[in-house]
Amino acid sequence: MLQELLTAAVATGSAGVLYAAAAARVVKQYERGVVFRLGRLHGDARRPGFTLIVPAVDRLRKVNMQIVTLPVPAQEGITRDNVTVRVDAVVYFKVVDAAAAIVNVEDYRFAVSQMAQTSLRSIIGKSDLDDLLSNREKLNQGLELMIDSPAIGWGVQIDRVEIKDVSLPDTMKRSMARQAEADRERRARIINADAEYQASKKLAEAAQAMSDTPSALQLRLLQTVMAVAAEKNSTLVLPIPVELLRFLEKGQETPPGRIAG
Questions:
Q1: Residue 214: alpha-carbon gap to chain centroid
Q2: What are all long-range contacts of 122-125, with beta carbons under 8 Å and residues at least 24 apart?
Q3: How far apart, in whole angstroms, are the C-alpha atoms of residue 178 and residue 157?
Q4: CA dihedral in degrees (230, 235, 238, 243; nearest 10)?
Q5: In the prediction, which pLDDT does 250 show?
Q6: 162 φ/ψ sector (left φ>0, alpha ψ -120 to 50, else beta)
Q7: For residue range 56-112, what is the model confidence (pLDDT) as tens digits?
């Protein structure tokens, strides 16, 4: 009798261990567990840690709640100003409602990927080339709103969308290079013309000052001679001496007290 009781206790203990092993589940910190009882959603999502389910009756599906980095394949399209481009992007999203992510959509990752590709092609068609190249922040926000609107019903929240690269045809690259070169040349000519204008104003002021003081012109001539003489490989020829210039200048003045006859 005692042996039979021991055998029954051992069998019961073994069955209990097997039941506990079949019912025990561990949900990690970054996961949530969704329980289906006979095919129907049962209760709220299970929190991280140790949990139990009914074997052969319940089914536990774990949902990752971490932020997912989803690259969007390059999409080719025509911009609003009729330029063919290829644009790729990356989407950062996370699951905020584990039950909705399992029940409302078959594969939320694939759904987000397809929605991102469709929205990216739509953004390309609505934007100009200059916006794709220089105004990406605004396009990122618009793309995020387009993806996030349907994703709310899937229990998914779009955290951020970034346009990675914009590929242009070689002909367009050459055209943009020529445009940039022409713009730089235009600015260089404007700067040179402005410099010439400022120099002419200063030269006119200097000429006016020298005309009021003739000796200043002679001093300037001597400074030029000294500057040229500093170069050993230069030869300076003055056909008219400075003293002769002074003599001619004095000769043009009328002596005091002399009356022209």
A1: 63
A2: 122/146, 123/87, 124/75, 124/77, 124/78, 124/79, 124/85, 124/87, 125/77, 125/78, 125/79, 125/80
A3: 44
A4: 40
A5: 66
A6: beta
A7: 888 999 999 999 999 999 988 888 888 889 999 999 999 999 999 999 999 999 999
Q: Distance (Å, rounded) from C-alpha 153 to C-alpha 111?
A: 12
> Among 64, 65, 60, which residue's Cα sits nearest to residue 46?
60
34 to 54, 95, 97, 109: CA distances (angstroms): 13, 13, 10, 17
Which uninterrupted H or E stretch holds 68?
strand 68-78
Are 115 and 150 a contacting pair, CB within 8 Å? yes
End-to-end CA distance of the chain: 170
How many CA atoms does the CB half-sphere of 199 hold within 13 Å? Answer: 6
Q: What is the largest CA-CA distance in the chain?
A: 170
Structure tokens belonging to residue 77:
């399209």
Amino acid at 121: R
